[in-house]
């Protein structure tokens, strides 16, 4: 009985700290992801960061793993065909567009080269490479698929971040309107359909 209470209390404390990371990141930005602001946002003593996560980097690593699209939200289908790739890309587009947190995580990753972010990016790249290898391996394409997918994914990242940061158009496309988001999604699907 005592062990269950300790376990429950530990889970609550971890949850508070992870939620505080999100709060600090979305309200103040990644430059404020430090022990003191996180402890203030969680109302948890800083010793508990070290107890539960080893250090601040451990807490941030756990937070990133739980919130990264490729590492936590993506369900990879068994058969990697054009439809599966279109589904993955449209899910990614919608997930990032709908989440201020995912946009902040991408900006943080692009802005700061710390080891935690590099490791998450490498893990994400491994998953992406497996998807590409499976997709190419199940087809006989003449098209050089990896550069095409790299341009699509980087376009998704940029367009979703740009629209929320600047609120302006890009190449005449206003990502803040449903009509233009639909145009972009249809173009992504069309590009995948044209792979030969």
From TrEMBL:
This is HTH tetR-type domain-containing protein. Keywords: DNA-binding. The keyword DNA-binding applies. SUPFAM superfamilies: Homeodomain-like. It holds the Pfam family TetR_N. Residues 34-53 bind DNA. It comes from Sphingobacterium pedocola. Residues 11-71 form the HTH tetR-type domain.
């Amino acid at each position: 009985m005592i062990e269950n209470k300790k376990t429950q209390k530990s889970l609550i404390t971890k949850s508070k700290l992870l939620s505080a990371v999100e709060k600090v990141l979305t309200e103040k930005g990644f430059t404020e992801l430090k022990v003191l602001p996180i402890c203030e946002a969680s109302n948890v003593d800083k010793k508990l960061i070290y107890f539960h996560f080893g250090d601040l980097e451990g807490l941030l690593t756990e937070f990133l793993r739980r919130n990264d699209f490729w590492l936590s939200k993506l369900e990879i289908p068994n058969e990697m065909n054009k439809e599966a790739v279109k589904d993955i890309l449209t899910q990614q587009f919608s997930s990032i567009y709908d989440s201020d947190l995912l946009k902040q995580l991408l900006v943080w990753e692009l802005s700061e080269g710390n080891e935690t972010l590099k490791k998450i990016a490498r893990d994400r790249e491994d998953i992406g490479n497996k998807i590409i290898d499976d997709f190419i391996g199940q087809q006989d394409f003449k098209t050089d698929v990896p550069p095409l997918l790299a341009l699509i994914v980087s376009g998704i990242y940029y367009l979703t971040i740009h629209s929320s940061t600047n609120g302006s158009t890009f190449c005449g496309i206003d990502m803040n309107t449903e009509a233009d988001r639909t145009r972009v999604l249809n173009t992504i699907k069309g590009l995948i359909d044209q792979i030969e």
